[in-house]
Design goal:
Layout (H helix, E strand, L loop, with lengths): L2 E3 L14 H9 L5 E6 L2 H15 L6 E2 L4 H6 L2 H14 L4 E6 L1 H5 L4 H11 L8 E5 L8 H16 L11 E5 L6 H13 L3 E4 L3 H4 L18 H5 L6 E5 L4 H11 L3 E4 L5 H15 L5 H21 L3 E5 L2 H13 L3 E7 L14 E4 L2 H7 L5 E4 L4 H7 L3 E3 L17 H18 L11 H4 L1 H13 L1
Parallel strand pairs: 1-12, 2-3, 2-4, 4-5, 6-7, 6-8, 8-9, 10-11, 10-13, 11-12, 13-14
Pfam families: Oxidored_nitro (PF00148)
Keywords: Nitrogen fixation, Plasmid
Function: This protein may play a role in the biosynthesis of the prosthetic group of nitrogenase (FeMo cofactor).
Length: 460
């Protein structure tokens, strides 16, 4: 069991985490026809917008209530109402997702009460649009908590409490924020290969997959439909991916009675096998031939990659669920986690991270603990530390803005694990250090020939 070391610094020197409101907005972006709204100042929204835009290289629909100095003093209910009605009239979204910021939460505003009043008094104007609130102050938690709270809010606010009919082929899948666009597409195809009908919430593969519509759409396009969220109670089983999704899975079970199974990770042979066994049991169908072939390809990749990964020292910095996902992957390939840094210490998953300690901190902590490691694993803001330490960097998580196509990187199940083995092995091969001019050369110095002569004499 890992020992969790709390944050001791009063300031982040090189920040690792992104804020809760950004995580909530990220989740709302996985809904078809959605418009996330930051309830706070314009500056808060602009910063999140820049990060999302740089990561996905897409136009991001994100709005703000634009609180000013007067609203901060006298209250912000009027700004919230005006923003909701303006968005409804101009963009006609199917969902407006309200993400509170530190500015509102610090004043201890009764945002839930204000929103309930707005929905009651403006019911006619808001017909056809769901309005959901996620309480996500910047000063607490990180992107993982914001994502979880937004998904929970959508289930509690939209899903019908009880459903009489259960579709034996329908399953609900709740992916964590660290499940990429490619992962979700692969997960859907895998479930459909068993004859199942998955509903994925949120589904960023439909909204942030890089497609270009033939006309301007002011909201998200693609993603989970509001009708599917409303009918989640018709599913026979819920699959939650990551400890962060336990809370929304429990909310769905409490509301509709749909049981859930939680997977800490879907990366690695053992974890992928567990999901395939579950899909086999639910569908009563054998694993398709392409799935079995992918498993054999992974086994071969593990044999090939073991020579490059075994014994390597890895330093990782990420959100708790992704930290566990990659730490479990590396140790499964024979590597050692010598430094593990995360954003918050409240997640239960940190207790089973395969490392001696997990430090709650920032990228300066990673740089302090990483010397001697063979690989740094974090997002793009870790590139300066990697350069100073002369250690190669594997980019994961959010944001990744100095590489293209990060959202299309596959990281789960047999194919994703196979691809990651090849990626890491290739990084090590590309960064092998050649002997320096001052290092002894056994061939040039004659040591190798002397060893051969000694060996020959010993045999005689």
């Amino acid at each position: 069991m890992a020992r969790i070391l709390p944050q001791t610094k009063s300031a982040a020197i090189n920040p690792l985490k992104s804020s809760q409101p950004l995580g909530a907005a990220f989740a709302f972006l996985g809904i078809n026809g959605a418009m996330p709204v930051f309830h706070g100042s314009q500056g808060c929204t602009s910063f999140a917008l820049v990060l999302l835009g740089r990561h996905f290289k897409e136009l991001i629909p994100l709005q703000t209530t634009a609180m000013d100095e007067i609203a901060i003093v006298v209250g912000c209910a009027d700004h919230l109402e005006e923003a909701i009605l303006n968005l409804k009239a101009r963009a006609k979204p199917r969902l407006i997702g309200i993400c509170t910021t530190a500015l509102v939460e610090t004043r201890d505003e009764d945002v839930a009460g204000d929103l309930a009043t707005i929905k009651r008094t403006r019911a006619t104007e808001l017909t056809g649009t769901e309005v959901v609130l996620a309480r996500t102050p910047d000063f607490d938690g990180a992107i993982e908590e914001g994502w979880s709270k937004a998904v929970t809010a959508m289930i509690e606010g939209i899903t019908r409490p009880r459903t009489q009919y259960r579709d034996p082929r329908k399953i609900a899948i709740l992916p964590g924020w660290n499940i990429t666009v490619a992962d979700i597409e692969h997960l859907r195809e895998t479930a459909e290969g068993f004859g199942l009908k998955p509903v994925i919430l949120p589904d960023v593969s439909g909204a942030l997959d890089g497609t270009i519509p033939d006309h301007w759409i002011p909201t998200t396009y693609g993603g989970t439909k509001i009708e599917d969220i409303r009918d989640l109670g018709a599913a026979m089983q819920c699959i939650a991916i990551g400890e962060q999704m336990r809370r929304p899975a429990e909310a769905l079970q409490r509301l509709t009675g749909v049981p859930y199974v939680l997977f800490e990770s879907l990366t690695g042979l053992k974890n992928a096998d567990q999901l395939i066994r579950l899909l086999t049991a639910m569908s009563r169908e054998q694993a398709p031939a392409n799935v079995r072939r992918s498993r054999m390809q992974l086994q071969d990749a593990m044999l090939d990659g073991h020579f490059h990964l075994a014994g390597k020292k890895i330093a990782i910095a990420s959100e708790p669920d992704q930290l566990y996902q990659f730490a479990d992957f590396f140790t499964g390939m024979g590597a050692e986690i010598t430094a593990a840094i995360t954003t918050t210490g409240s997640s239960k998953i940190l207790q089973i991270v395969p490392a001696e300690t997990v430090q709650v901190g920032d990228l300066s902590d990673l740089e302090h603990l990483a010397p001697g490691a063979d690989l740094l694993v974090t997002h793009s803001h870790g590139r300066q530390a990697a350069k100073r330490l002369d250690i190669p960097l594997m980019r994961i998580g959010f944001p990744i803005f100095d590489r293209l196509g990060s959202q299309h990187k596959l990281t789960i199940l047999y194919q994703g694990t196979r691809d990651m083995i090849y990626e890491v092995a290739n990084i090590f091969q590309a960064n092998q250090h050649t002997p320096t001019s001052g290092a002894p050369n056994p061939i040039r110095s004659g040591e190798l020939q002397n060893d051969l002569n000694s060996s020959s004499l010993a045999r005689q």
